[in-house]
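A protein record in our archive is deliberately plain, so that people and models can read it alike. The record that follows is passed on verbatim for readers who wish to inspect the format.
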Amino acid sequence: MSKHTDAAEVLLERKGCAGVITLNRPKLLNTLTVGMIRQIYTQLKKWEQDPETFLIIIKGAGGKAFCAGGDIRAISEIGNKNQKILQDFFREEYMLNNYIASYRKPYVALIHGITMGGGVGVSVHGQFRVATEKSLFAMPETAIGLFPDVGGGYFLPRLQGKLGYFLGLTGFRLKGRDVYTAGIATHFVDSEKLDTLEEDLSALKAPSSENVADVLETYHTKSKIDRDKSFILEEHMDKINSCFSANTVEQIIENLRQDGSSFALEQLKVINKMSPTSLKITLRQLMEGSSKTLQEVLTMEYRLSQSCMRGHDFYEGVRALLIDKDQSPKWKPADLKEVTDEDLNNHFKSLGHNDLKF
């Protein structure tokens, strides 16, 4: 029951009791297209109904990335020409994120390698997420004129203290065991054991969620790499919690400036490079998302996505970071104080009958 073609962007196979999804664009870091999103959604529906399929495993091909996000470059190239495709991409991506969160069978994401943006969306909402020493997590959207979407407004503010606000605004990268310690992953497994983990999961006989958890726990307990390493942000968490508890981006910046430590000044430098519009959208998104359900968050994020697609900064960010690679985006507006409350409110406005509905 395996569906393979040489150029398939997603491989969908049954292995033992498991439905296995392999994101298969290794040269493009397994970035997601709307076609991949549709295939995954359709197959997950089938497997949820199939009495022979007891769990889902999702992984990335090539060893370098699980999934580096949506294919942003392709989205930006389509963007100015075809608004419908942009609506479809974000709508179907967010529908998939929500479906994964409510999936009725154990869902195991092997987040080995680069896991960013849309890659986080197809993993973090699942029941089990397995990090390895090669995992690299980030939500770097403020650097390209976007915001940490795919439910970032739900999972980021629920991390310890203000960690999620820090990660969402700065795009800070977490590596290896830190992805587990931060609460993004549920388990940590040495990468050389991933193949045998997958075999052991697939070989289970009509497993329950608890059976799957037991196998993951066994591997997690036996993992040796960086076992005694303390969390990279441990010594900075007090600073993060105090500086990022402000209700405005301007106050966060002032807090960092007043703190004056090398860590605070480094974060200040990073934030000052980001799209001012993205920073303000993101802070409000996380504050509002902290008390919303995932579906409410995704509805809000869909409004934001469409607003960003109609704006300037997303296309400029992609140009500067991914196309011309001059790393010098010219944001409009270029200054935080020019992003008014009215501007901000417009981003969050209902789309009426075009709103995302579940």
The chain has a mean pLDDT of 95. The beta strands are 10-15, 18-23, 55-60, 65-67, 107-111, 114-116, 128-131, 136-138, 174-175, 187-188. Residues 83-101 form the longest helix (19 residues).
